[in-house]
Amino acid sequence: MKESGEQKTLSARWVVPIDRPPLEWGQVHIEGEKITGVSKAGTIDVDENLGEVILLPGLVNAHTHLDLTGFPQERKDGSNFLEWIDSVIAHRMSTTPLQMQEHIQKGIDQSLKAGVCLIGDISAGGHSWDLLSQSKLGGVVYFELLGLNRDRAQTALESFLSWIERIKPQDCLSPGVSPHAPYTVRVELLNFAIEQELPLQMHLAETLLEIELLQTRKGPFADWLIAKNVYDESGMVPSVRNILQLLDRNSQSVLVHGTCLTDFSEKKKKLVYCPRTHDFFNSSPHPM
């Protein structure tokens, strides 16, 4: 890193400011550790010409699961969502703690190689915190909360409280919370997450199966949850609209997927769209 206050100007074949068209042989002006401006070619003499490269801001991966880096992603057109969840559960249950750390580190390495500088990681048990805190990546580690029935919800809450007490927030890495989805998180646990006033991410309206479950409390998703012995209708949120209303209480809340949302625009919430997941399940065009 440069000493505070030292000035330097870089140029490259293409400079991509993002907020305006790319600049051929554009210039990037730096003071200390901050970018102070971007200008067209020839504005001032440059200190370093990077040559035939594209210079652009670091990328942001707003939603990922680093611990699933090792999960095999075979192409399955129209893949069944519930079968896919089964395969994720099986993968996690067969992964040792050491392997999980290796997967997380591999995801960090892949991110850095791809030009990512900030990441939003949904982390089972918050296990990515230590490795991310030692890396060059910044962002948010969202502790994943899972628990629809009362006992599992209480266990998840206690695990989160233990984690949040242990970690030490850093300048470029913050703790967050992720009440996973309407079909995996009890309404009391969702309210607890919202009240923490931390960055929050929640999967919502990813499939029509989920919408059917919320509207009727029946269908293949309900049968799947019953078979897993984790279904508790009394703990489920009433509706998608109710979730949106609850999340209004947390200004840092972000929704993930939203493939089947119909009343999202009026709520003016932040949403992370996952094109690869969308494509994997052959979903209809995104409503947003």
Could you write a compact summary of the structure shown?
By secondary structure, the chain is an alpha/beta fold.
Write up what this structure looks like.
The protein is of the alpha/beta class. Helix content is 32%, strand content 23%. The protein has two domains: 7-55, Urease, subunit C, domain 1; 59-280, TIM Barrel (Alpha-Beta Barrel), CATH 3.20.20. It has helices spanning 81-94, 97-113, 129-133, 150-166, 187-195, 208-216, 220-227, 240-247, 275-280; strands at residues 7-11, 14-15, 23-24, 27-31, 34-39, 48-49, 54-55, 59-64, 116-124, 138-145, 173-179, 200-204, 253-257, 270-272. The strands form four sheets. A four-stranded mixed β-sheet has the order 5-4-1-6, with no helix packed on it. The longest helix is centred in the middle third of the chain and has 17 residues, at 97-113.
**Strand arrangement in the largest pleated sheet:** 5-4-1-6
Enumerate the spans where pLDDT stays under 50 for 5 or more consecutive residues. none
* Rg, Cα atoms, Å: 22 Å
- Hey, roughly how much beta strand do the residues contain? 15-25%
| Euclidean distance between termini CA atoms | 41 Å
Q: Compute the number of structural domains.
A: 2
CATH homologous superfamily of the largest domain?
Metal-dependent hydrolases
SSE pattern, N- to C-terminal: EEEEEEEEHHEHEHEHEHHHEEH
Q: Which CATH class of the largest domain?
A: Alpha Beta
- Count of DSSP helices? 9
Number of strands: 14
Structural class: alpha/beta
Strand count, sense and barrel status of the largest sheet are: 4 strands, mixed
CATH architectural type of the largest domain: Alpha-Beta Barrel
Helical content stands at 25-40%
Shape: elongated
Q: What is the typical, i.e. mean, pLDDT?
A: 92
CATH T-level topology of the largest domain = TIM Barrel
